[in-house]
Amino acid sequence: MSERMASPALLLAEVDQDTVLPPRTVRPWPRWAHPRLLLPILVLAVLLACAAAPAWIAPYAPTDMDDIAILSPPDAAHWLGTDHFGRDVLSLMIHGARQSLLMGIWAVLVGGVLGGIIGLAAGYLGGRTDLVLMRLLDVWMSVPDILLAIILAAAMGASLTNTILAVGLVMVPRFARIMRAQVLAVRELPFVQASRAMGTTPWRIVWRHILPHTVSQMLVMATLGLGSAILIGASLSFIGLGVIDDRPDWGFLLNQGRNYLTVAWWFATFPGLAITALVISVNLLGDTLRERLDPRRSSR
Amino acid sequence: MLHRRQLATLLAAPLLLPAGARAQPTSTPKPGGELSFGLDGAAVSSFVLDPHDSGFAPHNRVFRSIYDSLVVLLPDQNVGPWLATAWEISPDRRSYTFTLRRGVTFHDGTPFNAAAVKANLDRVADAQSRPLTALPDIGPYAGSEVLAEDRVRIDLHRPFEPLLRNLSKTTLGIISPAALAKHGAAIAQNPVGTGPFRFVSLVQGVEIVLERNPDYRWAPPTAAHEGPAYLQRLVFRNVPEEATRVAALQSRQVHAADGIPPQNIAALRSASGFRLVEKELLNLNYTLYLNLNKAPWDDEDVRRAFRLSLDLDALVRVVYLGTLPRAWAPVSPSIFASAEKELRGSWKPDLAEAIRILDAKGWRPGAGGIREKDGKRLTVSFADTQGNREKRLDVIQFARRQVARAGFDLSIDSQPNSTYRQKLASGDYDLSGASQFAPDPDVLARLHLPDQRVASSVAKTNDPEISRWLTEGQQEGDPEKRADLYNRTQRRLIEKTYAIPVYVLPYTIGITTQVNGLSIDSHGFPEFHGVWLNA
Amino acid sequence: MPSHASFLLRRGLSSVLVIIGTVTLVFLILYWLPGDPAELVAGENATRESVARIRVLLGTDRPLWIQYLAYVGDLARGDLGTSFATQEPVSLRLWAQFPATLGLTLLASAVAIVAGIGFGILAAVNHGNWVDHAIQNVMLFLTSMPSFWLGILLILLFSVTLQWLPAIGSGSLAQLVLPVACLGLIAAGRLMRMVRDSVLDVLQEPFVTTLRAKGLPERLVLFRHVLRNALIPVITLFGIIVGELLSGTVVVESLFARQGIGRLLVDALSMKDIPVIQGAVLLASISYVLINLVVDLSYARIDPRLRVEG
């Protein structure tokens, strides 16, 4: 069971290692690596810049409401039009980039740290601990993602912290599984066993030998997880559990804008495209990372 | 939108009415057919078809087709005969004797009579395990006495002037006593009334199917005809998503849909093939209530400063795109004794004055422009559960920006319904908003009269004068004096800034031009009795 | 190597354990939530006394562990409890909604499988050329879109503009097309990637080269030999996809005004109708565990090497 109930992204990673497939023949990288790597890096660079200094980049403050330009189409003054309050959609999106990234990154951190600890404990301690922890994760995963996020968010009430927690907790199992698989692979390597035989403390072994070997796969998972986190966050907005803020995140904007699609297409379309671009970018980046960091090619 | 124009030209052009025109049947009504109605069921997807037990407006919009009332509310806000043909009020105004219409039968064949009226009212009064929603509608009800098959007397512990109007409400619709005995609480899924349509089936949260009651001959005097409805079937489909609801109408998957959002009103009005029918809902307007038990609202000046920092004209114009008027009085303009006229222009937004008051009160600007006093930030927590129904969340988001200029930090605390109710009951909020449909200004007592309101009331008003006027208002037999009591109450609610009314809601239905004769009753609920469809 | 029977037994047992665990987890989350269901059941005119009385009636006044034991006890007897909101048996409420969700999920899975495998193979055999790129890019876009956005765009295009398909409701096949497309296309995107990679991997195996060298027609190589091997990892993904589809129904059912478990759940959450939430989650988790069990078993059947683990 434990091998089956994993997220697709995780599975893609795991299958590479667990199944008995022969290594792929190396593909000619440069033919398609460029757009697949350049595009996401470019997109993410722009987003990070927006998130870092929105006030410098955005033409207007996110709170500026132009009473006479409500739902006005894109023009010279408002490149991406205005929303139902007469706010500049472009500026909202630039400021919202920070909210969306913040939410996604924190959720991934929550999931990664918690999942990492669980996976580490399960993989390193093995035996009964492993069994109990893995069954616990099975339980965790048997409630589908969005359902669990909705239950948690509804339970705690809508706020940025609670949304981060809800989405982060949903992502714990996939990190735990990756971590466990990695730890299991490294644990029995000769140099780790030698180190253990020399009487190195477990903490030191974990810190010096095991964790460094798991970083790359966890990084891949984190990248892919960022995409899922943002999509789950958007779904929460749709259900009415979005975070209300002067600087709404993209999911919230898209959710507000969708009711205006027939009268003001720009209001939903641009935030929707932004989310999609971000998710595509992190997916492409995660894939590329995974292929480059493939243990069979690099570390072994 | 192009496609619709194309489609319209394809259709027989002479049938199309000019945009915005009222549906005057150009030919004789054609019986038969099925009307599909897209209902704005908001977030609540379990249908409760027990009129005595749901104060939720979307449910009540369905009740009118299944259940009739003893009296009907007339356009002039007086009541007229319906299932009761006449009534007498005793000199002490504590007894109402109704003469009932003969020959009326429930959908299950049970005759409608004095015993049925008594059974219904006794049921509302009897709080078995929990009080029914309609309980406040009958006020100090003491009991009913069956005088004859067609005569019933309702006795009260003390005069209760709102009674007649309340009897015209859907919430006091008359249920078959036989069905009540048979189904018990399950009447909510098996409704049986005397109305123009009878219940066929229900898919919980999704659709309600009704069919024509062929025996119907007792339509109220407000109806265009007395006999059975024209439609063979009437299907209410719950479509909570506004964009989907409008799409279903535009694609003609439904013949009519309510809760048309402001952004689509203009488009539907100008589109050929569609029309809008609208009418003010008799309503305690959507109002912001300040929790008076708690700082900072225990200080009248701070309340005033808060209101002065709000520009409601701009707010309502922006959020509702000019489709509905802002409210000045707590109760909507058409309700008896509404103080809308008296209160119009009673206050003006004045940011400078708001700032001056707050400065004088010792609230000094702090970090991020939010004022502070003794290390406490001027944070106002708005408790909410409804999501963006009627764009109420947009109202608060907009208000949040406005009051921030004066240094208020309006935070939005959106909670699931159960948590929200608990917060209201425990008083753990500063601000909340609500509306409530009602035909009589006595509805104010349910919020502002401490011993008649529920623990989880949004309003915490405790003003001796208001309490006195509201108590007297229930008992004052002279309409003019009674109107004055409610008028004074409303003026004081505004003068003391206990409550801030926001907008007047017109109930809006979008229909295809295939639909004729759709009307909205004096309460603001849709009537399907006179509806017929073009081929 | 354990026998087939004991493998079945162990897998079955662990499935039951997972379901019990899920029930417990959800129970704990729900009761830890703030908000008193009695307050809602008691209605708008509730007095403090009537709320207290209803609390006793619902049993929510008892200590948590007693409530838990009572719930598990009822569950063992097949009793899912009574809805706080409508006083109907939970099993009845679930049963009324389940067929609609099941139909939606099954059809969406079918779309996902057909489109996912079809486009996956198409992309793999066209590896590197424009067909491959086009398929990959379109699918990447679809899987990266928030599902409610895709849904509303489908409604605007096919219901409002073209007037081909109904936007709302459940019952007829036509009413299933848009929601199924919305759910199925997103899942198809994930499946497509997996199939493509897997087929490419198998195509590079020595046995394929041997078969080709023997002069076997390319079509036979592909469909008789490559696909068989390539689909092993894909089957695994199917279990996950069903889980995602179940999740997705929450959004899709609300958007397309369909009946179903997802919508029931959202409603129950706002009302804090705990027995209904419990029942809905239980149903979702049982379906999920069952499907994964089936997937595991078929997996083991296709590839006996994998029977050892569990």
List the helices and strands and how they pair.
The complex is a heterotrimer of chains A (300), B (535) and C (310).
Chain A: H1 8-18, H2 30-52, H3 54-57, H4 89-125, H5 127-142, H6 145-156, H7 160-187, H8 190-197, H9 202-239, H10 250-257, H11 265-292
Helix pairs in contact in A: 2-4, 2-11, 4-5, 4-7, 4-9, 5-7, 6-7, 6-9, 7-9, 8-9, 9-10, 9-11, 10-11
Chain B: H1 2-10, E1 34-39, H2 57-66, E2 71-73, E3 79-81, E4 84-89, E5 95-100, H3 114-125, E6 141-148, E7 151-156, H4 163-167, H5 177-183, E8 197-203, E9 207-212, E10 233-238, H6 242-250, E11 256-258, H7 262-270, E12 274-280, E13 283-290, H8 300-308, H9 312-319, H10 340-343, H11 351-360, E14 364-365, E15 371-373, E16 376-377, E17 379-384, H12 392-404, E18 409-414, H13 417-426, E19 431-437, H14 445-448, H15 464-475, H16 479-495, E20 499-503, E21 506-512, E22 515-516, E23 519-520, E24 526-527, E25 532-533
Parallel strand pairs in B: 1-10, 1-11, 17-18, 17-19
Antiparallel strand pairs in B: 2-3, 4-5, 5-7, 6-7, 8-9, 9-10, 11-21, 12-21, 13-19, 13-20, 14-15, 15-16, 22-25, 23-24
Helix pairs in contact in B: 8-11, 9-12, 15-16
Chain C: H1 4-32, H2 37-41, H3 48-58, H4 64-76, H5 90-125, H6 130-144, H7 147-161, H8 174-203, H9 206-213, H10 218-255, H11 261-271, H12 274-302
